[in-house]
């Protein structure tokens, strides 16, 4: 039989060992709770929206309702214990199967929101872009967002650089439009500074108008500089441009896929068959390549070109040759 003192020591040792085991088991259970993978039906990705006013408890309740966490009280306490309750960042977050609730919370604190992309297609009009924006996922778009663009010009065409833009889910269409407009301004300013000094354009906006015509007229990038040279040559001798896309823009919804002789006589400042010089505004959104071609045309004596029907064009310096080419390729259609 152990002496009284040793017996007390043994009890203390056993007690401490038991507490150690219990602490270990508690720690393991807490670890399992915190890092348990989120279960999502069919392993599909889902989203969770965190508003600026969302509290730690409200967030945990949302996660609890989805079955991602157990005890609301425990998780709320853990968030506050780690000092995260004031660090939650608003936004839309994508939740994937296999991710733990703890990892999701860390991403919310880091602001790792869901990203989406939107493409402004070269050659599109403001109306077409507006339709695309209305269906862009997780983008808060209003038609009035266009009015925020800082422009003194009457038409919105040409005000956005055609490109692909990545945006945070839940952001505004206004923010995206501002970015695209700023990009356009930066590219246009640089192009104007580095332009061919022989260009007949009086300001960057005229260069942008020419680029928009190129965007619609040149199906092949390789021909952009050639067509740009034709535009330059015609403007220098005060010759009408006679560019079909400008007439099509003037017709709007009245264009059904093929220009008629009557339509080509429409009385509009955009009709470059009737009026000399450039149209008053761009006719489409443009790409960097179109702006580059407008600012650096291929120098030639060409004044005419006609579509061959395969996406390419044939170029001429004399009107008689141009007429023969028209007859030749019209017969093939």
What is the residue-mean pLDDT, rounded to a whole number? 87
**What proportion strand?**
5-15%
Distance between the termini: 115 Å
Using DSSP, what is the number of strands? 6
Q: In which order are the strands of the major sheet placed?
A: 1-2
Q: Give the helix level as a range of percent.
A: 40-55%
Order of helices and strands: HEHHEHEHEHHHHHEEH
Sheet/helix structural class: mainly alpha
Rg (C-alpha, Å): 33 Å
Instruction: Based on Cα principal axes, name the global outline.
Output: elongated
Main sheet characteristics: 2 strands, antiparallel
Oligomer: single chain
Low-pLDDT residue spans: 25-30
- Helix tally equals 11
Description:
The chain has 333 residues and is mostly helical. It has 11 helices and 6 strands. The strands form 3 sheets. A two-stranded antiparallel ribbon has the order 1-2. It has a two-stranded antiparallel sheet with strand order 3-4. A two-stranded antiparallel sheet has the order 5-6. Strand 5 (304-307) and strand 6 form a beta hairpin. Residues 25-30 have low confidence and may be disordered.
What labels describe this entry?
333 residues; mainly alpha; two-stranded antiparallel sheet; 11 helices; 8% strand
Topology:
Elements (H helix, E strand, L loop, with lengths): L3 H32 L10 E5 L5 H10 L6 H10 L9 E5 L5 H10 L4 E5 L6 H9 L29 E5 L4 H21 L10 H14 L6 H13 L7 H8 L36 H8 L8 E4 L5 E4 L2 H13 L2
Antiparallel strand pairs: 1-2, 3-4, 5-6
